[in-house]
Write a structure and sequence with these properties.
By secondary structure, the chain is mostly helical. Helix content is 86%, strand content 0%.
């Protein structure tokens, strides 16, 4: 399971380049990542850059939404478990229901953790955002190519 930001980066740059970027982060070679991203984005039109920025912002909003909604998901899980246990139904009905709800909650928990603690993806996205903003600013001022 990949973070939302990791999926976006793989979609934009490809799986191979994404792995190269994560390795460069481990070696603290952020400027190399910036130069590579900047070089790739420089070849794109102003409209393509605007679309990439919109995609990036939507992805960031999605990542934030996952983190914000997790509290409500946790409360819902606890309430559901409590209702299932205290409704005095037969255990052969309650046990599979609790198991199903727990499996769903575990999936959402893993999704939350993956999106909350994806430091490498966040750092690459910040470099990507800086390159995008720089190129968009150049295009707006007319100084760029």
């Amino acid at each position: 399971m990949k973070s939302v930001l990791g999926k976006l980066l793989e979609q934009e740059f490809g799986r191979e380049r994404y792995h190269i970027y994560t390795e460069k982060l481990n070696k603290r070679e952020s400027m190399d990542i910036f130069c590579d991203i900047y070089g790739n984005l420089r070849e794109q039109s102003q409209e393509a850059l605007n679309q990439a920025l919109c995609k990036l912002l939507e992805c960031i909003q999605s990542s934030i939404r996952i983190s914000k909604n997790f509290l409500y998901i946790s409360i819902g899980y606890l309430v559901t478990i409590a209702v299932l246990i205290f409704m005095n139904a037969a255990w052969f009905l309650v046990f599979p229901a609790v198991a199903a709800v727990t499996v769903c909650y575990l999936y959402k928990f893993l999704e939350f953790v993956r999106n909350r603690y994806c430091d490498k993806d966040v750092r690459i996205v910040l470099i990507y955002k800086i390159a995008l903003f720089h190129l968009l600013e150049e295009g707006c001022t007319g100084d760029g190519t």
